[in-house]
From TrEMBL:
Name the UniProt record assigns to this protein: proton-translocating NAD(P)(+) transhydrogenase
Pfam family, one: AlaDh_PNT_C
Key word NAD present: yes
PROSITE patterns: ALADH_PNT_2
SMART domains named among the record's database cross-references: AlaDh_PNT_C, AlaDh_PNT_N
Alanine dehydrogenase/pyridine nucleotide transhydrogenase NAD(H)-binding domain location: 156-318
Record field: catalytic activity: NAD(+) + NADPH + H(+)(in) = NADH + NADP(+) + H(+)(out)
Source organism (scientific name): Novilysobacter luteus
Length: 383
């Protein structure tokens, strides 16, 4: 473990510039906690306004709202962000500074080069190990929860029918039949939201162990007669025959479904294609598909990222950055995730790195420095 300086750590927070992004990486709550831990905080003026946090609220915590964020970044030991700063902004950061956020460094060569050329110690939190200890820092899970909730609200808004069963003077209205594909954090939140809205809900996932999780939310597990259960709790790849049978049964089932929300995504890779255009065409007019995986290519073949289209009377929506549409609570959760991770780097008010901590060593990009233990082992003579 090595401390970088005995002076107070300076944290810089720029305003997010990605189109439509409303979240902020620091809230007044976490600003106060970081200030209590001995950090000096500079945040760009107006950075939290879209998420409901005023400059005055930050100033009350001891943080300093600044107009010239470029100058603040040049002096910052740590920079917190939601989405990665532009390469030009990265190039203004202090040599060897720490960058924490959802960074996807390998997705853009210019961004990767800017991080390397400035010697930045980048912590892309999408690389964080999925362990019990890391749950309080897991930005993917916290933001997926908001995205799943919002996806079901989008679906309810697009559907030309009620979700709950209603008994009216004009007769009884049957509940909508909703299918959620993918039972990760986003999918489970979507299921829970559809249940709260009163729909008749089913959930599907290739992992058979999700049956219990889906059932615990009051939904029915959709069994397509094919299991991907493998060894050690991991899903195995389906054979071509199994995949074809699964697709045939899903296509048949979709004919009776009113709303489908798909949530199957793998960080850093293209989303798996689950619903073909032929399946969409086989659905009844008035049905709705909301594809939460639109940002990574979509689970539905008819999805157009960022658009809502109609094909054969079926509405297909591919919303982007849904977590940002719930900016207040999404920012609160995200900022707490970042605070919990940043605390690993603050020891007695100074910046320090314990490279024997797997949360740091496995998250840092491009690679962690050699830990003291490894250095000592390498220096020991071979006997």
């Amino acid at each position: 473990m090595a401390a970088a300086s005995d002076t107070p750590v300076t944290i810089g927070v720029p305003r997010e510039t990605a189109p439509g992004e409303r979240r902020v990486a620091l809230t007044p709550e976490t600003a106060r906690k970081l200030a209590t831990a001995g950090a000096r905080i500079r945040i760009e003026r107006g950075a939290g306004l879209a998420a409901g946090f005023t400059d005055e609220a930050y100033a009350e915590t001891g943080a300093e709202p600044v107009a010239d964020i470029a100058q603040a970044l040049e002096a910052a030991d740590i920079v917190l962000c939601v989405q990665p700063p532009a390469p030009a902004q990265l190039s203004r950061m202090r040599q060897g500074a720490v960058l924490i956020g959802v960074l996807a460094p390998e997705a853009e060569p210019e961004r990767a080069e800017a991080i390397r050329s400035r010697g930045l110690i980048a912590f892309p939190l999408e690389r964080l190990p999925r362990t019990t200890r890391a749950q309080a820092m897991d930005v993917l899970s916290s933001q997926a929860g908001m995205a799943g909730y919002k996806a079901m609200l989008v679906a309810a808004g697009l559907a030309p029918r009620f979700f709950p069963m209603l008994t009216t003077a004009a007769g009884t209205i049957r509940p909508s039949k909703v299918l959620v594909i993918g039972a990760g954090v986003a999918g489970l939140q979507a299921i829970a939201t559809a249940r709260r809205l009163g729909a008749q809900v089913e959930g599907f996932d290739v992992r058979p162990e999700t049956r219990e999780q889906i059932g615990s939310l009051g939904a029915r597990f959709l069994d397509l007669g094919v299991t991907a259960a493998g060894e050690g709790g991991y899903a195995r790849a389906l054979t071509d025959e199994e995949r074809a049978e699964q697709q045939r049964r899903l296509a048949e089932h979709l004919k009776g479904v009113d709303v489908v929300v798909t949530t199957a995504a793998v960080p850093g890779r293209a989303a798996p294609r689950i619903i073909t255009r032929a399946m969409v065409e086989g659905m009844k007019p008035g049905s709705v598909v909301v594809d939460l995986a639109a940002e990574s290519g979509g689970n539905c073949e008819a999805t157009r990222p960022g658009e809502t289209v109609e094909t054969g009377g079926v509405t297909v929506a591919g919303p982007l950055d849904l977590a940002s549409s719930g900016a207040v609570h999404a920012s609160e959760m995200y900022a707490r995730n970042l605070f919990n991770f940043t605390r690993l780097l603050l020891v007695d008010g100074a910046l320090a790195f314990d490279w024997e901590d797997e949360l740091l060593a496995k998250t840092v990009w491009p690679e962690p420095p050699v830990s003291p233990r490894e250095a000592a082992a390498a220096a020991s003579p071979v006997t």
